[in-house]
Amino acid sequence: MKGLITFEGIEGSGKSTQMRLVADFLLEKKIPFFVTSEPSGTDIGRKIGGILFDRGHRDMCAETELFLFCAARAQHVREAIVPALEAGKIVLCDRFSDATYAYQGAGRGLSGEFIKIVNDWSSLRLKPDLTLLFDLPVEMGLQRAIKRNDSLADSSSSDRFERENVLFHARVREGYLSIYKSEPGRFRLIDATMDIETVQKEVRSHIMAFLNAH
Ligand SMILES: Nc1ncnc2c1ncn2[C@@H]1O[C@H](COP(=O)(O)OP(=O)(O)OP(=O)(O)O)[C@@H](O)[C@H]1O
Ligand SMILES: [Mg+2]
User: Which atom of ligand 1 is closest in space to residue 94's alpha carbon?
Assistant: First the structure.
């Protein structure tokens, strides 16, 4: 097994942008890798994501949200992540279990104990080898996400999560920071307020250190 690297952080923190740039870097270095994301890393996960992100589903309760994300993860881990790791690839994954603790735990208020039971069964207790946490003020992340959505064909494309209020996102940010504090060895905390290139430089230094150690 080579290693699972996850990208975490609030909406608009730059996870997908930075992950794409890391993929370019691994391609240049001819290091075998597999790029994926949650919940949409499988066909089944994409369909589950359709239910999760539908902004018409305002009444979805927190437990349903947890089970749906974990259902997508159960499929994703077994169908995509474990086979890629077994093939000796580096797996870059846009969000993973930490997002569940941050969003459904800190954000929605579900107990960590409940999440752990559901998530452990779903994830096969697979832990990332390295997690990059992109941290920035909530308002800045949401502004970036709005600007990105405005440039898309469907300019009113904000999803159910992006429509949550600032307080929700602030709880999610704090949730991420508290997981980071409880497991500092696995995490690299990245100041995501810097420009894309500066952030990428720091990200690459962490990736290179990780590759050298594995
Ligand atoms: N460091 C940065 N400075 C300025 N703009 C950025 C930076 N990083 C990303 N962006 C821009 O902000 C927007 C959001 O970035 P991106 O989609 O990578 O975030 P994300 O964390 O994947 O968001 P989401 O959680 O919504 O998927 C994009 O339009 C991207 O080009
Ligand atoms: Mg993204």
Answer: 22
- 65-117, pLDDT tens digit by residue? 999 999 999 999 999 999 999 999 999 999 999 999 999 999 999 999 999 99
Q: Would the CB of 193 count as within 6 Å of ligand 1?
A: no
Q: Helices 15-28 and 196-213 meet at what angle, rounded to 10?
A: 50
Confidence of residue 8 (pLDDT cuts 50, 70, 90): very high
**pTM exceeding the 0.90 threshold for the entire prediction:** yes
Which of 17, 37, 96, 199 should be mutated for ligand 1, with most atoms under 8 A from CB?
17
The domain 3-213 is placed in CATH, from the list 3.50.50.60, 3.40.50.300, 3.40.50.12500, 3.40.50.720, at 3.40.50.300
Token couple for 208: 């290179």
Whether 160 and 55 have beta carbons less than 8 Å apart is answered as yes
Average pLDDT, the chain: 95
Distance CA 115, CA 49 (A): 19
Domain boundaries, the chain: 3-213
